[in-house]
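Query structure, 389 tokens:
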């Protein structure tokens, strides 16, 4: 009996333990409490009130915020926009007509006389010679006009003007190739060397050519290889900065011009630009020194590839003296084209004819003023029309 009671007691204990386990399993577990949030420090903002991009930290969120347009950015350099190249000579022809009115009007007045005797033809010849047309072209023009007037027997001013225009055009050479090689040559840029005596406006002309090329959407690098004139590199860099064109230069005066020119072409190749313009020294103390200097520049540059253009800058107001200078340079380097500066400042427009015949290369560009965009491609028809008024 006692044994039975013990067994019943054990069964009761086991049953109670089992019920307790089931109840504990079913009851949901209490969530673990998180540590209390720290109290907000004075002067701080709630996350929902934090300032956004463009806001001032002191401005409450409910105040107007600044937009991207309101944010002031540092100003970059303002680049100039060069004038279009097309039609520049037509636009500037008034300046040429003013300076050369005596030539054109003088010839027309002589040819319109009632009697074209020998004395009149001598005056026509003298007028052309004084305009620096040159002896051979002058003789050709006068002989042609005399024959045409004699055969046609015309005295009409318009007919005479037309004949004079045709003869002037014929000696200027309307069929000469006056284009500039400024297109990329395969994997390298076109290379243009500019030579001339110091004082002709050579460095200024290089800057103006750069502006012309920028106006034609060309990428350009300038090379300041006139290292013997202290202000030349600064002057060239100023021209380049105005239109966003970089200038390769030496950090010391009197550096090797050939090294500067070489580095300019190298940088142009690396930057994949269209044209490298190289300004050179124009000292004429002796031809041997000039020949050595320019010859070295050309040879060193040609390690990268051929020089595509060699432009000779001449001051149109120097007349026959300019022709003698041109002859020296043409012996030193193979000149491919002529740039006549200050053509608006001389009454001797015939220098165009004379210099072309003297050197056997065409006038490609003319300067007709001191303005940044007063350099124009030479157009024979527009030039003659400006001469005749």
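Result returned for the query:
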């Amino acid at each position: 009996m006692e044994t039975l009671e013990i067994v019943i007691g054990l069964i009761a204990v086991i049953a109670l333990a089992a019920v307790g386990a089931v109840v504990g399993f079913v009851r949901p577990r209490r969530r673990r409490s998180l540590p209390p949030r720290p109290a907000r420090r004075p002067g701080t903002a709630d996350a929902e009130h934090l300032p956004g991009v463009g806001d001032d930290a002191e401005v409450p969120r409910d105040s107007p915020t600044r937009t991207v347009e309101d944010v002031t950015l540092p100003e970059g350099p303002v680049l100039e926009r060069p004038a279009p190249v097309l039609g520049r000579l037509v636009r500037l022809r008034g300046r040429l007509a003013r300076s050369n009115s005596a030539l054109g009007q003088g010839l027309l007045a002589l040819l319109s006389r009632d009697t074209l005797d020998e004395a009149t033809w001598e005056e026509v010849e003298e007028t052309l010679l004084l305009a620096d047309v040159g002896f051979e072209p002058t003789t050709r023009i006068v002989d042609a006009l005399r024959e045409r007037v004699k055969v046609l027997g015309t005295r009409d001013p318009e007919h005479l003007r037309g004949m004079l225009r045709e003869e002037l055009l014929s000696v200027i050479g309307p069929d000469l190739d006056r284009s500039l090689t400024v297109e990329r040559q395969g994997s390298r840029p076109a290379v243009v060397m500019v030579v001339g005596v110091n004082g002709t406006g050579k460095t200024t002309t290089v800057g103006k050519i750069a502006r012309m090329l920028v106006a034609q959407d060309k990428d350009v690098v300038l090379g300041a290889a006139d290292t013997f004139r202290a202000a030349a590199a600064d002057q060239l860099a100023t021209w380049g900065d105005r239109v966003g064109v970089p200038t390769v230069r030496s950090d010391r005066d009197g550096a090797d011009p050939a090294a500067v020119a070489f580095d300019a072409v190298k940088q142009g190749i690396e930057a994949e630009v269209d044209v490298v313009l190289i300004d050179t020294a124009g000292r004429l103390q002796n031809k041997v020194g000039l020949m050595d200097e320019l010859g070295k520049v050309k040879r060193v540059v040609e390690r990268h590839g051929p020089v595509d253009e060699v432009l000779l800058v001449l001051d149109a107001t120097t007349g026959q003296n300019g022709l003698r200078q041109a002859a020296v340079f043409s012996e030193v380097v193979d000149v491919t084209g002529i740039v006549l500066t200050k053509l608006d400042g001389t009454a001797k427009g015939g220098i165009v004819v004379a210099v072309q015949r003297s050197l056997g290369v065409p006038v490609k560009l003319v300067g007709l003023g001191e303005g940044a965009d007063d350099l124009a491609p030479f157009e024979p028809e527009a030039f003659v029309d400006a001469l005749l008024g």
